[in-house]
Known about the structure:
The chain is an alpha/beta fold. Helix content is 23%, strand content 27%. The protein has 15 helices and 36 strands. Strand 4 (41-42) and strand 5 (51-52) form a beta hairpin. Helix 12 packs parallel to helix 13 and helix 13 packs parallel to helix 14. The longest helix has 20 residues, at 445-464. It is flat and about 75 Å long.
Amino acid sequence: MADFASPAQLWAARDALRMRGAAVSLLTDGARLSVEPTGGQVAGEDGDAGRPVDADVLELRADAATTAVLRLDVPLGDAAGYWHPGAGWDRHLVADWANPWRTVGLVDSAPLGCLYDTAGRALLAFASDRIAATTRVRFGVGEETARFGVWLSMDLAAGETCRIRVQAPGRPWADAVREVTGGLADAEPLPVPDAARAPAYSTWYSMHRELTATGVEAEAVLAAEMGCGVLLLDDGWQLHADGPGYSGSGQWTPDPAKFPDFAAHVKTVQGLDLRYVAWIAPLLVGERTPAYQELAQVAPHEVTRLGCRVLDPRRPAARRFAVDSCVDLVRRYGLDGLKIDFLDFAMAYAAEEYAAEELAGGDHAAEVHGADRLAVEENAADENVRTGRDDGTGAGRGASTDAGTGVATAAGPDTGGGTGTGKDTGRGVTTEVSADPAAKDVADVGLGIRLLLTELRERLRQLRGDELLIELRQPYTGPGMRRFGNMLRAADCPADATANRVRTLDTGVLAGSAAVHSDMLMWDPAAPAEAAARQLHSALFSAPQISVALAGQSAEHRAMTAFWLGVRRTYADVLGRGEIRAGRPDQLHQTVTAALGRRAVIACYAEHHVVPLQLAEFTEVALVNSTAGSRVVLDIEDPGAERPGVAGMAGVSCQDNEAPGAAGPGVRVRLDVFDACGRTAASGPRTLGPGLTPIAVPPSGLCVIRPAAPEQSPR
């Protein structure tokens, strides 16, 4: 096949199908395209008819084994940016020649994306059902065509199909992405117990590897008092955790010096009404453990600076060791679930597959070679640092150049497989031959990971049923992971409130019914309470993971933490089940609204930013000022625009307009204003709008807007 290394090759003229405003062209031979209009209705609530389906399905079918390359392109129009699960900070429009092929799959992003305009509406939203096996993706602006293109390259077996859903343009970008990804999961999602949505306490930033049973239990008491529902024991509990990198991984035994009776310790914490979840990196085997040599053949990739090997999930013995390690840990010590880390390191084998193909002069040999290939790997490592991918260095958990390089790899058919539960061998290695697909080698990293996680899910559910808790983190939080995890966490971003906000909202777009979790929250213990509160605000639309030493908090910080966790409890239904409106991805979501019924939570994250508000929609609005400024400016719609049959706050209006600069009748409401620690700053009636209306709200404070009491309304 052509190497598709130049824009001329990417934009080669081919017969194109037209669907939902996009042109679809097959750039290679050996496969066929067809379009299946979906039609019908999306079911509404309470038995109503719902809304029409406005997406079509493109089917790509291979006539023979082939590497198929597909292009979807649309006119640029008013395009403002392009969002995809691995976007990180790069949400702008990039030139086609500046954007190399990248490999996506089950443990690194997903084959889906959305081009959107300056109003945040989708111009092109698509998602492929190839959510396990790897796909090579490229996208960018064609300088000569004034069009935006997305290219998908995949290795297909004879008769294999790939289905790609394409959404009609015009809907808000997040709604369009939810629509095209809604039916992608290839099995029922993992059930989500209430505990998964509760605030959690994590030991990582507060204790790192300096863990002891007594220290964890003391923090657990305080976490339970503050309303946390889960304790996450992070790295450091295991034997040999005191060594460099991950040299002790693979021997998943509690350190007896830190936890003399780990099972009793777990029960103590659970007795505080906290679920207990422990960290594990099941694909890593450290040089200080017996597994390092025993599993060398199925863990050939070495990460020298971390002192460990990476198990190859394509190999059944590697999968069995990883699964047995996890199951044994949960069963032996009575855990409620696991925090599963570093699955993205498996992409090292995707990179090595590509390197072997390149040396053999394979199809993609001209795409990245020599110094250019090294540059791509280094750029990928830089991106890992920006997005906070863990490598366990202990110093900010930066990126590893040994995994996730983003270069091309061969991919086998996305065929699924059995659970392969077999017998439980503890931490041993099972190499016996079986007809079970789970006991055979597979060609693709994503398919190997899916076999591993399928068996792990089934065996852990035998132990914990629907109450099982599994945390997964970016970049493996795409639609394919809803089957295997119910706590999907933002990648590491210590003390970066902006990154935490952006990453939790990104994760939420793809999470489906799963609970979205923030990265662990930390802040300077000497910082003003207002600054610390903004860390909690960053996790407002997700489940926050507190990771500061609670026993060492000042009185101000304790009051602040308790207040904002209390606000979250008050509005838990709105924040957890409400419709999220977050604005354009490239503007980093300066204002975010969650609305459910007649209640809303609006968080303002940028000073001098006007917040639109329709008082006719709501009877209660919690307005969060997550800035260092002392006011929020609302743009209030004319109460005369109240929708028929909607009893919002605009139902009580007043000609006595107290809002500076507003014209026409206002709306009489009650404002209750609190500072960052929950102390009352102001309380009383006020007439709001219409038009631009400033409201005094302390830095990092809260204003609750409700209808005025009858005795406060004009007679």
